[in-house]
Design a protein that fits this description.
2 helices; single chain; three-stranded antiparallel beta sheet; 3 strands
Length: about 130
């Protein structure tokens, strides 16, 4: 299995500083998106959408009225799973096929049925066992 490149402490610090600047830029972009999300209009809702599969729907109740204010599915729900954020910080990431990883890095199909991992095998993925 391939491993990350080994460098000097100074080279690592320079690469880390560059990544940190990009992470801060991404954080500011996410903060801006969150501000836009807080300003989304809402719609009167009689249907909770609970039968639509794995999704997140946010409602605002005002007395007897219920309004749908936000909805997301699939990767939009990643924020709710603490482990995905942690895996994104590791050298091999989530090991899912959609990730942009160096050649030789372990990757598995994204849509593997959970809880089918062979006994004795180690897992580093979140709900994507084989």
């Amino acid at each position: 299995m391939e491993k990350p490149k080994i460098v000097t402490v100074e080279e690592w610090q320079q690469a880390r500083d560059e990544l940190l600047a990009a992470e801060k830029e991404a954080t500011r972009a996410l903060d801006s998106l969150a501000a836009r999300r807080r300003r989304l209009p809402m719609v009167f809702s009689r249907d909770t959408g609970a039968g639509d599969g794995f999704l997140l729907i946010v409602f605002l109740r005002d007395g007897e009225n219920v309004y749908r204010t936000y909805t997301t599915t699939s990767r939009g729900i990643d924020k709710l799973a603490f482990v995905t954020g942690i895996l994104d910080l590791t050298p091999y990431g989530r090991q899912e096929e959609w990730e942009d990883s160096p050649a030789g890095w372990p990757q598995n199909p994204t849509s593997i049925i959970p809880n089918t991992m062979e006994l004795g095998r180690q897992s580093t993925g979140f709900g994507r066992f084989r």
